[in-house]
Amino acid sequence: RSLRRSLLETIDGYSQHLTTSVIEEQIYPQLQTGFNDSHAYIRELTLKSMLALAPKMSNKTLVTSVLKHLSKLQVDEEPSIRANTTVLLGSVAPLLGDATCRRVLLNAFTRALKDAFPPARIAGLRALVATKQYYSPGGAGARRGDRGGS
């Protein structure tokens, strides 16, 4: 656990040297266990590490695996983890693709607006504003003028 903690704390210093294949095949399969770690600090470090790794990850991994973990972390017992999950979702939104954003983000951020922890609510509001291009008043998160195509 101490080695995992050390690697996660310093990921910003070496993540730029990692290739997509190394991240996808060697690092992420091990890293994702940190999302479920019993120690909150490891869960939070794992979450924060995604800011450095997500830009080099495939859309498939982000959508099928990372979002699943983030969904669970959005209801974590630790308030700071819930808030940081919302911040991360807002930050990685451009990497997810329009259809995924329209399907996932509005629900995630409105959930954050109902959180008892004020910083989580603030993060939800900021994330909604930062990703406003994915929503329309017409409903269900579809962009104005979007006829269902990409």
Give an overview in words.
- With 150 residues, the chain is mainly α.
- The chain has a single domain (1-134), classed as Leucine-rich Repeat Variant (Alpha Horseshoe).
- 67% of the residues lie in helices and 0% in strands.
- It is built from eight helices and no strands.
- It has helices at residues 2-9, 11-14, 20-31, 40-53, 59-73, 79-96, 98-113, 118-130.
- The longest helix has 18 residues, at 79-96.
- The protein starts with a helix and ends in a 20-residue tail after the last helix.
Give a concise summary.
This protein has 150 residues and is mainly alpha-helical.
* Discrete helix count: 8
Largest sheet: none
Q: For the residues shown, what is the average pLDDT?
A: 92
In terms of DSSP E residues, the strand content is: under 5%
Assigned CATH superfamily: Leucine-rich Repeat Variant
User: Any idea how many domains?
Assistant: 1
Structure keywords:
150 residues; mainly alpha; Leucine-rich Repeat Variant; 67% helix; globular; disordered C terminus
